[in-house]
Write a structure and sequence with these properties.
Helix content: 25-40%
Strand content: 15-25%
Strand order of the largest sheet: 5-4-1-6-8-7-9
Shape: globular
CATH architecture: Alpha-Beta Complex
Structural class: alpha/beta
CATH superfamily: Spore Coat Polysaccharide Biosynthesis Protein SpsA, Chain A
Length: 191
């Protein structure tokens, strides 16, 4: 199994007041840098899925993949763009992960890779945006997206993604959606 990571950084961050949430500072480093640090040892390559000016991510020296559709259809479009990029590079799977999840597990890929298609689960909640996607599904997912589907969880369920539980005292899939979440993440890193 050849795995490339696609970091989903194209959201509008409305609950944070707009802007690029993955570029917000967490302990003097952007959230995105924390995500990259967590994923880099687990995959063969990485790319960032984001619309707009790719220069804002230049410091990371990673490909920046825009959605193929201009109307910000959500993370599913980023997953399809990532699959297209990965297929062109010869990868069999992509790991999708949001750019605002700084505590991803060090064994994420190893555990998800026990299944051909798998998504993370913690504390009784499925995280379909944190998933290992077989690239061979890209045309079927593109068709679902073109048909109006926007829910990653629905697509993952439709194509048979298995849930893999990650238990522990802290939620490894904690994501920063609000200023309060950012404060919580700062506190979590301080301990």
């Amino acid at each position: 199994m050849m795995v490339a990571a696609v970091i989903l950084a194209g959201g509008r961050a409305t609950r944070m007041g707009g802007g690029d949430k993955p570029l917000l500072a967490l302990r003097d480093r952007p959230l995105l840098a924390h995500v990259i640090d967590r994923l880099d040892p687990q995959v063969e390559a990485m790319a960032i899925s984001a619309n707009g000016d790719p220069a804002r991510f230049a410091a990371y020296d990673l490909p920046v993949l825009p959605d193929a559709t201009p109307d910000f259809p959500g993370p599913l479009a980023g997953i399809v763009a990532g699959m297209d990029w990965a297929a062109a590079k010869g990868f069999s799977h992509i790991l999708s992960a949001p750019g605002d999840t700084p505590f991803l597990p060090a064994d994420l890929v190893v555990r998800l890779a026990r299944h051909p298609f798998a998504m993370a689960e913690s504390r009784g909640r499925k995280h379909p945006v944190v998933a290992l996607w077989p690239v061979v599904l890209r045309e079927a997912i593109r068709k679902a997206l073109a048909g109006g589907e926007r829910r990653v969880g629905r697509v993952a369920a439709e194509f048979g993604a298995r849930s893999v539980r990650f238990d522990g005292p802290e939620d490894p899939f904690f994501n920063v959606n609000t200023p309060e979440d950012l404060d919580e993440a700062q506190n979590r890193l301080a301990t």
